[in-house]
Protein backbone atom coordinates (compact mmCIF):
# COMPACT_ATOMS: atom_id res chain seq x y z
CA UNK A 1 0.00 0.00 0.00
CA UNK A 2 1.30 3.44 -0.92
CA UNK A 3 1.67 5.92 1.94
CA UNK A 4 -0.74 8.40 0.33
CA UNK A 5 -3.67 6.04 -0.24
CA UNK A 6 -6.99 6.95 1.40
CA UNK A 7 -10.72 6.73 0.69
CA UNK A 8 -10.16 8.66 -2.53
CA UNK A 9 -6.75 7.55 -3.81
CA UNK A 10 -6.36 3.82 -4.38
CA UNK A 11 -4.00 1.57 -6.33
CA UNK A 12 -5.33 -1.46 -8.20
CA UNK A 13 -3.20 -3.52 -10.59
CA UNK A 14 -0.54 -0.79 -10.48
CA UNK A 15 -3.03 1.82 -11.72
CA UNK A 16 -4.33 4.86 -9.87
CA UNK A 17 -8.03 4.94 -9.08
CA UNK A 18 -9.91 7.99 -7.91
CA UNK A 19 -12.68 6.46 -5.86
CA UNK A 20 -13.95 3.59 -7.96
CA UNK A 21 -12.88 5.05 -11.33
CA UNK A 22 -9.54 4.68 -13.07
CA UNK A 23 -7.77 8.06 -13.19
CA UNK A 24 -6.65 7.66 -16.82
CA UNK A 25 -10.23 6.94 -17.90
CA UNK A 26 -11.46 10.06 -16.09
CA UNK A 27 -8.81 12.08 -17.94
CA UNK A 28 -9.83 10.54 -21.26
CA UNK A 29 -13.50 11.38 -20.69
CA UNK A 30 -13.14 14.93 -19.35
CA UNK A 31 -9.82 16.04 -20.83
CA UNK A 32 -6.78 17.54 -19.14
CA UNK A 33 -5.61 19.55 -17.27
CA UNK A 34 -8.33 18.54 -14.82
CA UNK A 35 -8.89 18.93 -11.10
CA UNK A 36 -10.75 15.98 -9.56
CA UNK A 37 -12.22 16.29 -6.04
CA UNK A 38 -13.68 13.61 -3.79
CA UNK A 39 -16.99 14.23 -2.04
CA UNK A 40 -16.45 11.20 0.23
CA UNK A 41 -12.96 12.26 1.34
CA UNK A 42 -14.12 15.82 2.08
CA UNK A 43 -16.98 14.63 4.27
CA UNK A 44 -14.67 12.16 6.01
CA UNK A 45 -12.13 14.90 6.79
CA UNK A 46 -14.82 17.22 8.17
CA UNK A 47 -16.37 14.56 10.39
CA UNK A 48 -12.96 13.41 11.66
CA UNK A 49 -12.14 16.91 12.84
CA UNK A 50 -15.51 17.35 14.51
CA UNK A 51 -15.13 13.98 16.21
CA UNK A 52 -11.75 15.02 17.64
CA UNK A 53 -13.49 17.30 20.15
CA UNK A 54 -13.88 15.20 23.33
CA UNK A 55 -17.03 16.83 24.71
CA UNK A 56 -19.21 18.87 22.37
CA UNK A 57 -21.84 19.36 25.06
CA UNK A 58 -19.59 21.68 27.08
CA UNK A 59 -19.48 24.30 24.33
CA UNK A 60 -20.26 24.60 20.64
CA UNK A 61 -17.75 23.67 17.96
CA UNK A 62 -17.40 25.87 14.89
CA UNK A 63 -15.49 24.37 11.99
CA UNK A 64 -14.98 27.51 9.92
CA UNK A 65 -13.82 26.44 6.47
CA UNK A 66 -11.06 28.72 5.18
CA UNK A 67 -12.69 29.50 1.85
CA UNK A 68 -9.47 30.84 0.34
CA UNK A 69 -8.24 27.23 0.18
CA UNK A 70 -10.80 26.40 -2.51
CA UNK A 71 -14.00 28.38 -3.21
CA UNK A 72 -15.58 25.85 -5.57
CA UNK A 73 -19.36 26.23 -5.16
CA UNK A 74 -20.07 22.51 -4.98
CA UNK A 75 -17.38 22.11 -2.32
CA UNK A 76 -19.02 24.90 -0.32
CA UNK A 77 -22.45 23.28 -0.69
CA UNK A 78 -21.11 19.95 0.62
CA UNK A 79 -19.56 21.66 3.63
CA UNK A 80 -22.69 23.72 4.33
CA UNK A 81 -24.75 20.54 4.50
CA UNK A 82 -22.25 19.10 6.99
CA UNK A 83 -22.76 22.08 9.29
CA UNK A 84 -19.65 24.07 8.43
CA UNK A 85 -19.11 27.74 9.16
CA UNK A 86 -17.04 30.04 6.91
CA UNK A 87 -13.77 31.89 7.37
CA UNK A 88 -13.85 34.62 4.72
CA UNK A 89 -11.03 37.04 3.94
CA UNK A 90 -12.71 39.31 1.39
CA UNK A 91 -16.17 40.75 0.66
CA UNK A 92 -16.22 38.54 -2.43
CA UNK A 93 -15.89 35.44 -0.28
CA UNK A 94 -18.61 36.68 2.06
CA UNK A 95 -20.89 37.28 -0.92
CA UNK A 96 -20.26 33.82 -2.41
CA UNK A 97 -20.87 32.11 0.93
CA UNK A 98 -24.24 33.86 1.26
CA UNK A 99 -25.20 32.94 -2.33
CA UNK A 100 -24.39 29.30 -1.62
CA UNK A 101 -26.69 29.38 1.40
CA UNK A 102 -24.52 30.05 4.44
CA UNK A 103 -26.33 32.27 6.96
CA UNK A 104 -24.35 35.49 7.56
CA UNK A 105 -24.37 34.54 11.27
CA UNK A 106 -22.04 31.63 10.37
CA UNK A 107 -19.48 33.79 8.58
CA UNK A 108 -16.38 35.36 10.15
CA UNK A 109 -14.77 38.06 8.02
CA UNK A 110 -11.03 38.35 8.65
CA UNK A 111 -9.61 41.00 6.35
CA UNK A 112 -6.20 42.63 6.36
CA UNK A 113 -5.43 46.15 5.08
CA UNK A 114 -9.20 46.50 4.72
CA UNK A 115 -10.64 49.42 2.80
CA UNK A 116 -13.68 51.54 3.49
CA UNK A 117 -15.41 49.82 0.59
CA UNK A 118 -14.61 46.40 2.10
CA UNK A 119 -16.21 47.44 5.35
CA UNK A 120 -19.29 48.94 3.71
CA UNK A 121 -19.96 45.68 1.87
CA UNK A 122 -19.47 43.49 4.92
CA UNK A 123 -21.36 45.80 7.31
CA UNK A 124 -24.37 45.52 4.99
CA UNK A 125 -24.60 41.77 5.70
CA UNK A 126 -26.70 41.34 8.83
CA UNK A 127 -25.01 38.94 11.26
CA UNK A 128 -21.48 38.68 9.87
CA UNK A 129 -18.79 38.93 12.55
CA UNK A 130 -15.87 41.22 11.63
CA UNK A 131 -12.41 40.31 12.84
CA UNK A 132 -10.32 43.39 13.72
CA UNK A 133 -6.79 42.99 12.35
CA UNK A 134 -5.31 46.25 13.63
CA UNK A 135 -6.04 48.70 16.43
CA UNK A 136 -5.75 51.48 13.84
CA UNK A 137 -8.42 49.79 11.72
CA UNK A 138 -11.02 50.76 14.32
CA UNK A 139 -10.92 54.43 13.34
CA UNK A 140 -11.91 53.53 9.77
CA UNK A 141 -14.57 51.13 11.04
CA UNK A 142 -15.99 53.85 13.27
CA UNK A 143 -16.21 56.27 10.31
CA UNK A 144 -17.97 53.73 8.07
CA UNK A 145 -20.38 52.76 10.82
CA UNK A 146 -21.25 56.39 11.45
CA UNK A 147 -21.83 57.13 7.77
CA UNK A 148 -24.51 54.52 7.12
CA UNK A 149 -24.76 51.97 9.91
CA UNK A 150 -25.05 54.19 12.99
CA UNK A 151 -27.79 52.19 14.73
CA UNK A 152 -26.76 48.76 13.55
CA UNK A 153 -25.38 46.21 16.00
CA UNK A 154 -22.22 44.89 14.37
CA UNK A 155 -20.46 41.95 15.98
CA UNK A 156 -16.67 42.07 16.12
CA UNK A 157 -13.79 40.00 17.38
CA UNK A 158 -10.12 40.85 17.68
CA UNK A 159 -7.40 38.99 15.83
CA UNK A 160 -4.45 39.29 18.13
CA UNK A 161 -0.82 38.39 17.50
CA UNK A 162 0.34 36.20 20.43
CA UNK A 163 4.01 36.79 19.64
CA UNK A 164 4.79 33.30 18.30
CA UNK A 165 4.07 31.77 14.93
CA UNK A 166 4.75 28.63 12.91
CA UNK A 167 4.58 27.67 9.23
CA UNK A 168 6.23 25.37 6.72
CA UNK A 169 7.61 28.40 4.86
CA UNK A 170 8.68 31.90 5.97
CA UNK A 171 5.86 33.16 3.76
CA UNK A 172 3.20 31.24 5.67
CA UNK A 173 4.07 32.37 9.20
CA UNK A 174 1.36 34.77 10.36
CA UNK A 175 2.25 35.60 13.96
CA UNK A 176 5.24 36.82 15.91
CA UNK A 177 7.26 39.97 15.30
CA UNK A 178 9.01 38.75 12.14
CA UNK A 179 8.94 35.70 9.92
CA UNK A 180 11.95 33.37 9.89
CA UNK A 181 13.41 35.25 6.90
CA UNK A 182 13.14 38.61 8.67
CA UNK A 183 9.92 39.85 7.07
CA UNK A 184 7.81 41.89 9.54
CA UNK A 185 4.52 40.12 10.30
CA UNK A 186 1.62 42.28 9.12
CA UNK A 187 -1.20 40.36 10.81
CA UNK A 188 -3.01 40.92 14.08
CA UNK A 189 -3.16 43.30 17.00
CA UNK A 190 -0.06 43.22 19.17
CA UNK A 191 -0.48 42.07 22.76
CA UNK A 192 -0.15 45.52 24.35
CA UNK A 193 -3.06 46.91 22.28
CA UNK A 194 -5.60 44.09 22.63
CA UNK A 195 -7.48 45.49 25.64
CA UNK A 196 -7.50 48.96 24.07
CA UNK A 197 -8.98 47.45 20.91
CA UNK A 198 -11.85 45.90 22.86
CA UNK A 199 -12.49 49.11 24.76
CA UNK A 200 -12.45 51.26 21.63
CA UNK A 201 -14.66 48.82 19.75
CA UNK A 202 -17.26 48.95 22.51
CA UNK A 203 -17.01 52.75 22.76
CA UNK A 204 -17.51 53.00 18.99
CA UNK A 205 -20.78 51.11 19.11
CA UNK A 206 -19.56 47.67 18.08
CA UNK A 207 -20.34 44.46 19.98
CA UNK A 208 -17.14 42.55 20.91
CA UNK A 209 -17.84 38.81 20.99
CA UNK A 210 -14.63 36.89 20.31
CA UNK A 211 -10.87 36.50 20.37
CA UNK A 212 -8.95 35.08 17.40
CA UNK A 213 -5.43 34.06 16.52
CA UNK A 214 -3.72 32.51 13.50
CA UNK A 215 -0.12 31.34 13.76
CA UNK A 216 0.69 30.17 10.23
CA UNK A 217 0.19 27.32 7.81
CA UNK A 218 1.70 23.89 7.32
CA UNK A 219 2.34 22.70 10.87
CA UNK A 220 4.11 19.38 11.36
CA UNK A 221 4.52 17.17 14.41
CA UNK A 222 7.62 19.03 15.57
CA UNK A 223 5.65 22.30 15.82
CA UNK A 224 3.28 21.03 18.49
CA UNK A 225 5.22 22.33 21.50
CA UNK A 226 5.33 25.93 20.27
CA UNK A 227 1.67 25.70 19.20
CA UNK A 228 0.79 24.76 22.78
CA UNK A 229 2.59 27.89 23.99
CA UNK A 230 0.34 29.97 21.71
CA UNK A 231 -2.75 28.18 23.06
CA UNK A 232 -1.66 28.97 26.61
CA UNK A 233 -1.25 32.63 25.72
CA UNK A 234 -4.69 32.68 24.10
CA UNK A 235 -6.30 31.26 27.23
CA UNK A 236 -4.49 33.76 29.44
CA UNK A 237 -5.55 36.67 27.24
CA UNK A 238 -9.18 35.48 27.29
CA UNK A 239 -9.08 35.33 31.10
CA UNK A 240 -7.73 38.89 31.24
CA UNK A 241 -10.54 40.13 28.99
CA UNK A 242 -13.19 38.36 31.03
CA UNK A 243 -11.82 39.96 34.20
CA UNK A 244 -12.17 43.36 32.51
CA UNK A 245 -15.84 42.68 31.91
CA UNK A 246 -15.83 41.49 28.29
CA UNK A 247 -18.07 38.45 27.83
CA UNK A 248 -16.48 36.40 25.07
CA UNK A 249 -18.80 34.21 23.04
CA UNK A 250 -16.03 32.28 21.26
CA UNK A 251 -12.31 31.65 20.96
CA UNK A 252 -11.01 31.05 17.43
CA UNK A 253 -7.66 29.28 17.19
CA UNK A 254 -7.35 29.64 13.42
CA UNK A 255 -5.97 26.99 11.09
CA UNK A 256 -2.48 25.76 10.29
CA UNK A 257 -2.70 21.97 10.43
CA UNK A 258 -2.94 20.05 7.20
CA UNK A 259 -2.60 16.72 5.40
CA UNK A 260 0.52 14.70 4.68
CA UNK A 261 2.31 16.10 1.63
CA UNK A 262 5.44 13.91 1.62
CA UNK A 263 6.38 10.48 2.93
CA UNK A 264 8.63 11.44 5.83
CA UNK A 265 6.48 14.34 7.06
CA UNK A 266 5.54 14.19 10.73
CA UNK A 267 1.79 14.68 10.85
CA UNK A 268 0.60 17.37 13.23
CA UNK A 269 -1.39 15.69 16.07
CA UNK A 270 -4.76 17.33 15.49
CA UNK A 271 -6.63 15.24 18.03
CA UNK A 272 -4.06 15.99 20.76
CA UNK A 273 -4.18 19.66 19.82
CA UNK A 274 -7.97 19.85 20.09
CA UNK A 275 -7.96 18.01 23.41
CA UNK A 276 -5.26 20.33 24.73
CA UNK A 277 -7.37 23.37 23.82
CA UNK A 278 -10.48 21.95 25.47
CA UNK A 279 -8.66 20.98 28.65
CA UNK A 280 -7.06 24.43 28.97
CA UNK A 281 -10.43 26.14 28.56
CA UNK A 282 -11.93 23.85 31.18
CA UNK A 283 -9.08 24.47 33.64
CA UNK A 284 -9.37 28.23 33.16
CA UNK A 285 -13.15 28.10 33.72
CA UNK A 286 -13.78 30.40 30.81
CA UNK A 287 -17.40 31.23 30.12
CA UNK A 288 -17.20 30.97 26.34
CA UNK A 289 -20.01 29.39 24.33
CA UNK A 290 -17.94 28.04 21.42
CA UNK A 291 -14.50 27.08 20.13
CA UNK A 292 -13.65 27.71 16.48
CA UNK A 293 -11.02 26.32 14.12
CA UNK A 294 -10.34 27.43 10.55
CA UNK A 295 -9.15 24.44 8.51
CA UNK A 296 -8.42 24.83 4.82
CA UNK A 297 -5.65 22.40 3.90
CA UNK A 298 -6.84 19.86 6.46
CA UNK A 299 -10.27 19.65 4.84
CA UNK A 300 -9.33 20.08 1.19
CA UNK A 301 -5.66 19.13 0.63
CA UNK A 302 -6.00 15.39 0.07
CA UNK A 303 -9.46 15.80 -1.44
CA UNK A 304 -8.10 16.88 -4.83
CA UNK A 305 -5.66 15.86 -7.55
CA UNK A 306 -4.62 17.53 -10.79
CA UNK A 307 -4.46 15.27 -13.85
CA UNK A 308 -1.95 16.21 -16.55
CA UNK A 309 -1.17 14.71 -19.97
CA UNK A 310 2.43 13.87 -20.92
CA UNK A 311 2.97 15.46 -24.34
CA UNK A 312 6.43 13.96 -24.81
CA UNK A 313 9.55 12.93 -22.96
CA UNK A 314 12.65 15.06 -23.41
CA UNK A 315 16.30 14.28 -22.69
CA UNK A 316 18.86 17.07 -22.43
CA UNK A 317 22.33 17.09 -20.86
CA UNK A 318 21.51 13.78 -19.15
CA UNK A 319 18.34 15.24 -17.67
CA UNK A 320 15.01 13.51 -18.29
CA UNK A 321 11.86 15.63 -18.54
CA UNK A 322 8.21 14.64 -18.67
CA UNK A 323 6.70 17.59 -20.54
CA UNK A 324 3.07 18.07 -19.50
CA UNK A 325 0.16 20.24 -20.64
CA UNK A 326 -0.04 22.45 -17.58
CA UNK A 327 2.05 24.89 -15.57
CA UNK A 328 2.77 25.32 -11.87
CA UNK A 329 2.44 29.11 -11.71
CA UNK A 330 -1.09 29.03 -13.06
CA UNK A 331 -2.36 25.61 -11.92
CA UNK A 332 -0.46 24.46 -8.81
CA UNK A 333 1.22 27.70 -7.69
CA UNK A 334 2.35 26.44 -4.28
CA UNK A 335 5.76 25.06 -5.45
CA UNK A 336 6.36 28.26 -7.43
CA UNK A 337 5.51 30.55 -4.49
CA UNK A 338 6.87 28.46 -1.64
CA UNK A 339 10.13 26.64 -2.37
CA UNK A 340 9.41 24.29 0.54
CA UNK A 341 6.12 23.06 -0.97
CA UNK A 342 6.01 19.46 -2.18
CA UNK A 343 3.37 17.53 -4.12
CA UNK A 344 3.73 13.84 -4.79
CA UNK A 345 3.42 12.95 -8.50
CA UNK A 346 2.07 9.60 -9.69
CA UNK A 347 2.01 7.98 -13.12
CA UNK A 348 -1.62 6.89 -13.26
CA UNK A 349 -1.02 3.85 -15.50
CA UNK A 350 2.25 2.76 -13.81
CA UNK A 351 2.15 3.76 -10.16
CA UNK A 352 5.00 1.66 -8.84
CA UNK A 353 6.60 -0.06 -11.82
CA UNK A 354 10.15 -1.32 -12.08
CA UNK A 355 11.68 1.05 -14.67
CA UNK A 356 12.26 3.97 -12.28
CA UNK A 357 14.50 6.91 -13.12
CA UNK A 358 15.06 10.50 -12.02
CA UNK A 359 12.46 12.55 -13.87
CA UNK A 360 11.73 16.29 -13.78
CA UNK A 361 8.05 17.03 -14.51
CA UNK A 362 8.20 20.19 -16.62
CA UNK A 363 5.30 22.56 -17.18
CA UNK A 364 4.36 24.52 -20.31
CA UNK A 365 5.06 28.04 -19.05
CA UNK A 366 7.95 30.30 -19.97
CA UNK A 367 9.60 30.06 -16.54
CA UNK A 368 12.65 28.06 -15.43
CA UNK A 369 10.93 27.42 -12.12
CA UNK A 370 7.90 25.90 -13.82
CA UNK A 371 8.46 22.32 -12.65
CA UNK A 372 5.92 20.25 -10.72
CA UNK A 373 8.64 18.01 -9.36
CA UNK A 374 12.43 18.06 -9.73
CA UNK A 375 14.25 14.78 -10.36
CA UNK A 376 11.55 12.57 -8.90
CA UNK A 377 12.41 8.86 -8.73
CA UNK A 378 9.43 7.38 -10.56
CA UNK A 379 8.44 4.92 -13.31
CA UNK A 380 9.60 6.49 -16.56
CA UNK A 381 6.64 8.33 -18.15
CA UNK A 382 6.00 8.09 -21.87
CA UNK A 383 3.99 10.13 -24.34
CA UNK A 384 0.26 9.86 -23.64
CA UNK A 385 0.61 8.92 -19.97
CA UNK A 386 -1.49 10.73 -17.36
CA UNK A 387 0.28 12.10 -14.31
CA UNK A 388 -1.55 12.95 -11.08
CA UNK A 389 -0.32 15.79 -8.87
CA UNK A 390 -1.54 14.69 -5.46
CA UNK A 391 -2.80 16.72 -2.51
CA UNK A 392 -3.75 19.62 -4.76
CA UNK A 393 -7.24 20.27 -3.43
CA UNK A 394 -6.17 23.29 -1.36
CA UNK A 395 -4.47 26.51 -2.46
CA UNK A 396 -4.05 25.35 -6.04
CA UNK A 397 -7.15 26.03 -8.14
CA UNK A 398 -7.98 28.98 -5.87
CA UNK A 399 -4.57 30.53 -6.66
CA UNK A 400 -4.68 29.65 -10.36
CA UNK A 401 -4.25 32.33 -13.01
CA UNK A 402 -4.20 32.84 -16.76
CA UNK A 403 -0.45 33.48 -16.81
CA UNK A 404 0.96 33.12 -20.35
CA UNK A 405 -2.74 33.38 -21.33
CA UNK A 406 -3.21 29.72 -20.46
CA UNK A 407 -6.68 28.58 -19.46
CA UNK A 408 -7.42 27.49 -15.91
CA UNK A 409 -8.13 23.76 -15.46
CA UNK A 410 -11.64 22.40 -15.29
CA UNK A 411 -12.97 20.89 -12.04
CA UNK A 412 -15.15 17.87 -11.34
CA UNK A 413 -16.34 16.13 -8.18
CA UNK A 414 -16.60 12.37 -7.98
Description:
With 414 residues, the protein is an alpha/beta fold. The chain folds into two domains: 9-38 and 301-413, Lyase, Ornithine Decarboxylase, Chain A, domain 1; 111-295, TIM Barrel (Alpha-Beta Barrel), CATH 3.20.20. The protein is built from twelve helices and 20 strands. Strands 4, 14, 15, 16, 17, 18, 19 and 20 form an eight-stranded mixed sheet that branches. An eight-stranded parallel β-barrel has the order 5-6-7-8-9-11-12-13. Strands 1-2-3 form a three-stranded antiparallel sheet. The longest helix has 20 residues, at 224-243.
Question: What is this structure's SSE topology?
Answer:
Blueprint: E1 9-12, E2 15-18, E3 21-22, H1 23-30, E4 34-37, H2 39-51, E5 60-66, H3 73-82, E6 85-88, H4 91-100, E7 107-110, H5 116-123, E8 129-132, H6 137-148, E9 155-161, E10 189-190, H7 194-203, E11 207-212, H8 224-243, E12 250-252, H9 270-284, E13 290-293, H10 297-300, E14 304-316, E15 319-324, H11 328-331, H12 334-337, E16 345-347, E17 356-362, E18 371-379, E19 386-389, E20 410-413
Parallel strand pairs: 4-20, 5-6, 5-13, 6-7, 7-8, 8-9, 9-10, 9-11, 11-12, 12-13, 15-17
Antiparallel strand pairs: 1-2, 2-3, 4-14, 14-15, 14-19, 16-19, 17-18
Amino acid sequence: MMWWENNFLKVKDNKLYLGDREASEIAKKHGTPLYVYSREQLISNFRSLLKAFPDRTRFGVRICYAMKANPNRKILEILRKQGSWIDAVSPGEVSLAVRVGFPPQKILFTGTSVSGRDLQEVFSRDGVTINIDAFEQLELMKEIKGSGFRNKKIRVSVRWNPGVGRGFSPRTITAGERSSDGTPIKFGVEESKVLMAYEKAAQSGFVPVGLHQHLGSGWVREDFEIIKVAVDRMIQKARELEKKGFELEFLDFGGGFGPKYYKNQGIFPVEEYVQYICQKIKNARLKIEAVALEPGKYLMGNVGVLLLHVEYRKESYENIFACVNGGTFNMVPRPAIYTQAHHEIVNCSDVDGGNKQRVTVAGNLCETGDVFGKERFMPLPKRGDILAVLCSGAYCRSMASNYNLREKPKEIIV
